[in-house]
């Protein structure tokens, strides 16, 4: 079922364009539009300045053609350096045993490339648009129209993708390639398999002490899936427990939004603190008791069992009674052991 439709995109666009962000806040979709307007301006304004200088100070012919091409060419070179430089030398990389710098999780290069090409498209639209205002040229007009047409799909894709990201409710923005904590190779493979899997009902249990990168890893994983236009949701355990006792009202949601039980991936954070607090504050037995409440129990269990979930835990306590362990909880609600993946970030 597609939750973000063209109607939702148009409604979100209306909300972003009408009203003052001083009192309503700035959405990711609004930020994306402002960013592309900035790219347009960085093509438009320098082209106008260069055209004015060349047309008044030189005898150059076809200034209206050379000016936008020079400015656009400059931004193409700039973005090429920005793409190949900072990304390849990112601070979130580590050194392998051979001394070669590598990412813990490789960036989605195709996605980054598409983003770079989108930016270049708006740089070009600004430069060619300025040239048309200065002096009309059929060749420039053809190029301008082509770039405008080429920008339609990227604009729709990125705008709807930003809606997927903002509707997920993440506490911060983080791509998985930016995650730079320690991790065992076997756990790294588990994370990659979890990302690639198209099966439903997979449960990833992330254990680790305070500062081990549990939350940022879960957000990074979910962000990659949101960018693929999956319905992801981030929620703390305390908030989710209250949701187990209420009927969701979709009429109060923003355009294209979804409830926790409509998510294809649910991130449950802050289940237990970890660090020096070794014992679970929220016991698995208590969680199950609230999950399986008399009014909504069967409904809750059905969706928890069927959806993909990342459970962000504290320290894994090996001395816990078996009935207190979270793997046992998942087994109680019908999740097969083969669908439970456990990663302990403290065991590096």
Automatic annotation (TrEMBL):
Molecular function per GO: ATP binding
Record's keyword annotation contains Transmembrane helix: yes
UniProt keyword terms in alphabetical order: Membrane, Transmembrane, Transmembrane helix
Acyltransferase in keyword set: no
InterPro entries per UniProt: P-loop_NTPase
Listed transmembrane segments: 37-54, 66-89, 122-153
Matches recorded under Gene3D superfamilies: P-loop containing nucleotide triphosphate hydrolases
Name of this chain's protein: IstB-like ATP binding protein
Species per Swiss-Prot/TrEMBL record: Pedobacter caeni
């Amino acid at each position: 079922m597609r939750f973000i439709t063209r109607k939702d995109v148009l409604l979100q666009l209306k909300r972003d364009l009408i009203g003052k962000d001083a009192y309503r806040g700035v959405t990711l979709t609004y930020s994306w539009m402002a960013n592309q307007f900035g790219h347009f301006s960085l093509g438009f304004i320098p082209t106008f300045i260069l055209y004015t200088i060349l047309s008044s100070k030189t005898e150059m012919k076809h200034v209206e053609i050379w000016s936008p091409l020079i400015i656009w060419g400059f931004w193409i070179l700039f973005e090429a350096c920005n793409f190949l430089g900072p990304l390849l030398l990112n601070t979130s990389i580590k050194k392998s045993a051979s001394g070669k710098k590598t990412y813990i999780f490789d960036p989605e290069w195709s996605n980054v490339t598409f983003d770079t090409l989108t930016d270049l498209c708006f740089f070009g639209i600004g430069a060619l648009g300025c040239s048309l205002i200065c002096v009309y040229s059929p060749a420039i007009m053809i190029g301008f129209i082509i770039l405008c047409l080429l920008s339609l799909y990227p604009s729709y894709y990125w705008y709807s993708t930003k809606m997927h990201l903002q509707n997920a409710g993440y506490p911060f923005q983080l791509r998985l390639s930016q995650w730079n904590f320690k991790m065992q190779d076997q756990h790294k493979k588990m994370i990659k398999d979890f990302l690639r899997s198209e099966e439903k009902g997979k449960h990833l249990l992330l254990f680790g002490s305070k500062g081990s990168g549990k939350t940022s890893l879960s957000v990074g994983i979910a962000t990659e899936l949101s960018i693929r236009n999956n319905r992801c949701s981030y929620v703390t355990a305390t908030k989710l427990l209250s949701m187990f006792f209420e009927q969701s009202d979709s009429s109060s949601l923003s355009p294209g939004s979804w409830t926790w039980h409509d998510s294809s991936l649910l991130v449950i954070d802050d289940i237990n603190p970890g660090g020096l607090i070794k014992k679970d504050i929220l016991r698995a037995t208590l969680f199950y008791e609230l999950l399986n409440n008399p009014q909504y129990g069967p409904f809750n269990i059905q969706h928890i069992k069927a959806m993909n979930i990342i459970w962000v835990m504290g320290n894994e306590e090996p001395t816990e009674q078996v009935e207190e362990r979270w793997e046992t909880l998942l087994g109680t609600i019908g999740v097969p052991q083969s669908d439970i993946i456990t990663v302990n970030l403290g065991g590096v």
